[in-house]
Fold this sequence. Notes:
By secondary structure, the protein is α/β, with parallel strands linked by helices. The protein has helices spanning 17-20, 28-41, 62-71, 85-99, 104-117, 155-162, 166-178, 181-189, 194-239, 245-250, 273-284, 300-307, 374-384, 400-407, 419-430; strands at residues 5-6, 13-14, 47-52, 55-60, 77-80, 129-131, 139-141, 240-242, 257-262, 285-294, 312-321, 326-328, 333-335, 337-344, 358-361, 390-393, 411-416. Among the domains are: 5-101, Alpha-Beta Complex (Conserved hypothetical protein from pyrococcus furiosus pfu- 392566-001, ParB domain), CATH 3.90.1530; 243-430, Vaccinia Virus protein VP39 (Rossmann fold).
Amino acid sequence: xxxxxxxxxxxxxxxxxxxxxxxxxxxxxxxxxxxxxxxxxxxxxxxxxxxxxxxxxxxxxxxxxxxxxxxxxxxxxxxxxxxxxxxxxxxxxxxxxxxxxxxxxxxxxxxxxxxxxxxxxxxxxxxxxxxxxxxxxxxxxxxxxxxxxxxxxxxxxxxxxxxxxxxxxxxxxxxxxxxxxxxxxxxxxxxxxxxxxxxxxxxxxxxxxxxxxxxxxxxxxxxxxxxxxxxxxxxxxxxxxxxxxxxxxxxxxxxxxxxxxxxxxxxxxxxxxxxxxxxxxxxxxxxxxxxxxxxxxxxxxxxxxxxxxxxxxxxxxxxxxxxxxxxxxxxxxxxxxxxxxxxxxxxxxxxxxxxxxxxxxxxxxxxxxxxxxxxxxxxxxxxxxxxxxxxxxxxxxxxxxxxxxxxxxxxxxxxxxxxxxxxxxxxxxxxxxxxxxxxx
Length: 440
Ligand SMILES: C[S@@+](CC[C@H](N)C(=O)[O-])C[C@H]1O[C@@H](n2cnc3c(N)ncnc32)[C@H](O)[C@@H]1O
């Protein structure tokens, strides 16, 4: 009790925070009435002090003492004795209840002050002792819990002291512990009840909890996505390989591929590669698997000649391109469609799945100079390979085959001898967001 001392009256009075905090503030009207009465008649009633260890600790009259000090009015005191500070504090609370017209919130607030200032700590139970440890029938001896333990800081206890419902005690506690200073002031001035304010506080806490949960969930999803994007990135880096297709295909297991869907370069000097492509296909394709390759019209006979020693010719497929037509001056032809040659290892698996031999397609050159359309790739990969089957494109270019195979849930592998094409395709496959809703 580090209170200020005054010498205005008959005894030296000590103010003590443990008691002053129990005193409920006066309303503006009450304060004015008291001031006017003291100024007119002086301080009629004695201030109550607790004579303790040679000090006169003020219990009742905090407001009057302040007014007297300011108005330089004398006051007199009456002393009371108590066993201890707690008993004195209890008297302060009861005295206010009897003298003042305190609201239930004010009473509960006051008794919470009391409970917090004079809270009795729960006695820690001593460690249990085992008598005759190791012997049969050993008896555990538990010390008795201290009977002096009084839970003075529970809602129930405060409610009982303040003569208010337990709910009021708990609302007041919520405002005291979690309210803003404005909310505390509103409760103490009676502007709003503890019930209304506590409801706001609980709503705020709930909103915060939900917002925190949403934030945590968003973070968890983002982490998961970046983790799965990482895993995907590694898989894509593994499955889009840089190098000559012959070397790369040599590492692939025999009869592991359902469909080779590819677009080799078909300038005259590259045409012999179709022979190597066919030889490779004969090894890696499953029996009944297909090789579908784009072919320039003018080299169709050469390509068929190079491939048929290894795979059986099955059909010619046509991609009809809309839009501007290429012109082949040396042949005098405006090119309206592009052939795709279809070969099979043995005889075609799943003949019962009918496919059309013509696809209406559109030009696409967004990513790669030789890029083929996603349209025919989607149609033939979907129809000529089983779900989860393996699709291989030895001439990756812009990665159209891999993009489509990934979208269709096929396993896939691709390669290109050109590093730039490999990098570009990896990025295109990784960032392909075709299945995301618009605007996401
Ligand atoms: C016509 S492009 C493929 C275009 C692809 N279909 C698309 O839609 O983007 C042919 C690709 O084969 C690659 N290539 C040529 N010879 C190769 C070889 N021996 N091994 C691997 N890739 C090769 C070229 O670098 C080129 O990117």
